[in-house]
Design brief:
Elements: H1 2-8, H2 18-24, H3 27-38, H4 42-49, H5 53-60, H6 68-74
Helix pairs in contact: 4-5
Length: 78
């Protein structure tokens, strides 16, 4: 994407959809920021979302990329 953006002389962000921007801008920091803003522990937030604690930890540590369908369900801004 970087090379395509350079070729067309546009910011790479203009070529990405919302999901890929979420990943590019750091899924871990964004998910943790939302959880922290809500004042929830990882366990509480995982329970609230209906996901496993392990998945939430992996997302916050950037060990596992969140699936697009999961992102759309819980994090997509409408």
């Amino acid at each position: 994407m970087e090379k395509i953006a350079q070729l067309f002389e546009v910011p790479v962000d203009t070529l990405l959809d919302d999901y890929n921007l979420f990943l590019r801008n750091g899924q871990s920091n964004q998910i943790k920021a939302i959880r922290t803003k809500l004042g929830l522990t990882q366990r509480q937030y995982a329970d609230k979302l209906g996901v496993s604690l392990g998945n939430l930890k992996h997302w916050e540590q950037n060990r596992k990329q969140i699936f697009k369908s999961t992102w759309e369900k819980y994090f997509k801004q409408t």
